[in-house]
Amino acid sequence: MTPTGPSMNVSATRKRKVLISGASISGPALAYWLHRSGCAVTVVEKAGAPRDGGYPIDVRGTATEVVRRMGILPQLRDAHIDTRRCTFLDADGGEVASLTSRAVAGGAEGQDLEVRRGDLAAILYAMVRDDVEFLFDDSIATLDQSGHGVDVTFHSGQRRTFDLVVGSDGMHSPTRGSLFGPEEQFHHYLGYCFAVFTMPNTFGLSRELMVWNTPGKAAALYAVGDDDELHAFLNFHRPEPPVDVLRDPGAQRDLVATVFAGAGWEVPRMVNAMHDADDLFFDTAGQIRMPHWSSGRVTLVGDAAYAPSFLTGQGSSLALVGAYVLADALARNRDHTAAFAAYERGVRKFVAMNQALVDNGAATFFPTTARALEQRNTMLRGLDTMPSATARPAHSALALPEFAPMP
C-alpha cells in the first residue's frame, strides 16, 4: 500500500529546515510527515539511541487512521498485545471480577490496538531513519529567535540555525520550559502518584492484567505476552504532589514502600522488586493544559503541549494525531504563524475531549474511598451481563483533513 499524506505546496522555495526535540512517538511521526511534505528534518534526542521498553500504550480512533495512512497499520496489528483478561482483586487478593480488556476499556473491537511503547517507537524510527537526520546523545541548550530563524545551541556545543523548532520532548518538556516558563503554571495535578517498573514473572501470568485495590491505592501486574517479565504498577492517592521526592529515586522508593506497608496480595513482593528495579519510573499523574502551544517559530506537540495522563489511555493517540495535523498545517501554509494557528484550531477541541476522559479512568481504576470502591466493583460485576462497550466518542471525534496520494 502506498501511504497517503498531507498535500504539498510545490514551489521553487528552498526546503524548510525543521528541528524536532524528542524521538519517542510524536517526534518521529512528525518527522515522517514533514519529510513527506518536503522539509529537511533534524531530530535531536538526549538518549544515546531510540528508547525501547516502556509500558504498553493504545492506538485508538483517529490515531488508527493516522497509522493506516502512514502504511504501518499491518505492522502494528502484528505487534498487537491482545490482552485476554483483566482481573480485579480485593484487599485480600480475592477476585472481584474477571473481564475482557474491551469490556473494561471500551473501544472498537478489531480496530483499537495495544502495543509495547518500544515497538511503536521502533517502527516509527525505522520509517524515517534513512530520510531524517538524528542527533543522539544531545539536546537543545539555548534557542534564539532574534534573527530570521531559530539559532540553536546544543549541549554538545554545536550551533545551527533552523526555520522552525518543535518541542516533542514529553510532559516535562525542556523546550516548553525555555519558551513559556516553569511547568507548574501548566501542570494540572490529578491527585495520584505512580511507580512503574519491570519484575520477574514468577506468577505464571500470560496476556493478562491483574489489578488489586484498596481505597486510594492500587497495584497491577501486566503480562503483555508469555514473557518471563512483568510490568508492575503501584499507584496511590495523594492530595498534594510530593515535590520533595520527584528528583530523588531513593526517596521515591522509600515513599512507595511506606505507602504500601502492610498491603495484602502480592504487593510486598512488588515493593521488594521495586527496590531492585533498574528501570523504575516515578511520577505524578497530571495533565498539561496551555492557552497556546506556539511562540514565534517554535511550537509544541504531544505530551509537551497537551499530555492527557495515563488515566485516559490517550497519550500516544494524541501524539500521533497532533503530529499529523501539525505537519498538514505546515504543508498548506508557508507562513508558520498561520500554520501554527491552523494546527491549534485543528486539534484543540479533540485534545480537550480526550483530557476530559480522565474522570472515567480515575473512577474505574483508582477509587479513593471505600464507598467509591464498592460502587466501582458493583459496576465491574455488572459488565459481564451488559452489552459490549461501544467506542468512546473522543476516540474518533476528529475529522482529519483531506488527503491525496503522495507523488
Describe this structure in words.
A seven-stranded mixed beta sheet has the order 6-5-14-15-16-13-17, with helices on both faces. A six-stranded mixed beta sheet has the order 8-3-2-12-19-18, with helices on both faces. It has a three-stranded antiparallel beta sheet with strand order 9-10-11. The protein is globular and about 65 Å long. Mean pLDDT is 88; it is low at 8-12, 389-393 and 403-407. Strand 14 and strand 15 (217-223) form a beta hairpin. 33% of the residues lie in helices and 25% in strands. The chain is α/β, with parallel strands linked by helices and 407 residues long. It has helices at residues 26-36, 62-70, 73-79, 101-105, 117-128, 174-180, 249-259, 267-276, 303-306, 315-332, 336-355, 358-365, 370-383; strands spanning 4-5, 17-21, 40-45, 57-59, 85-89, 95-99, 113-115, 133-136, 140-144, 150-154, 159-162, 164-167, 187-200, 208-214, 217-223, 229-237, 281-288, 294-295, 298-300, 404-405.
Strand and helix layout:
Elements: E1 4-5, E2 17-21, H1 26-36, E3 40-45, E4 57-59, H2 62-70, H3 73-79, E5 85-89, E6 95-99, H4 101-105, E7 113-115, H5 117-128, E8 133-136, E9 140-144, E10 150-154, E11 159-162, E12 164-167, H6 174-180, E13 187-200, E14 208-214, E15 217-223, E16 229-237, H7 249-259, H8 267-276, E17 281-288, E18 294-295, E19 298-300, H9 303-306, H10 315-332, H11 336-355, H12 358-365, H13 370-383, E20 404-405
Parallel strand pairs: 2-3, 2-12, 3-8, 5-14, 12-19
Antiparallel strand pairs: 1-20, 4-7, 5-6, 9-10, 10-11, 13-16, 13-17, 14-15, 15-16, 18-19
